[in-house]
């Protein structure tokens, strides 16, 4: 009982340290990023989970935010840390209809 109390305190402290940074999960099932629009803050991480049976990709063509996280096979994950405020698009190079928009405040 007593030990459990101290463990709970430690968890609360660690969580408090990172209160300003959130982790947002984006899934890819059915060749579709979910959610299709994301609100994030600088410092947040976006975790892209390929829960589909096809390979996908995280590609940002937006000037100033451009990046390519490479081919993501089924069950693989990639993480993008949001560096600055603005609006950028995430696309999949294999499926041109796949799109999610990230708004960073
Ligand atoms: Cu794709």
UniProtKB/TrEMBL annotation:
Pfam families: Cupredoxin_1 (PF13473). GO terms for cellular component: periplasmic space. The keyword Transcription does not apply. It comes from Allomesorhizobium camelthorni. Residues 10-97 form the EfeO-type cupredoxin-like domain. Keywords: Copper, Electron transport, Metal-binding, Periplasm, Signal, Transport. Residues 1-21 form the signal peptide. Binds 1 copper ion per subunit. InterPro entries: Amicyanin/Pseudoazurin, Cupredoxin, EfeO_Cupredoxin. Its cofactor is Cu cation. It is found in: Periplasm. Cu cation binds at residues 56, 92, 95, 98. This is EfeO-type cupredoxin-like domain-containing protein. GO terms for molecular function: copper ion binding; electron transfer activity.
């Amino acid at each position: 009982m007593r030990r459990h109390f101290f463990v709970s305190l430690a968890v609360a402290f660690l969580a408090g340290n990172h209160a300003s940074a959130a982790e947002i999960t984006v899934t890819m099932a059915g060749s579709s990023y979910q959610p299709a629009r994301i609100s994030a803050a600088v410092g947040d991480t976006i975790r892209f989970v390929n829960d589909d049976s096809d390979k996908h990709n995280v590609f940002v063509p937006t000037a100033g935010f451009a990046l390519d996280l490479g081919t993501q096979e089924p069950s693989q994950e990639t993480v993008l840390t949001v560096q600055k405020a603005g609006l950028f698009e995430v696309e999949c190079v294999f499926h041109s209809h796949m799109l999610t928009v990230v708004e960073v405040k």
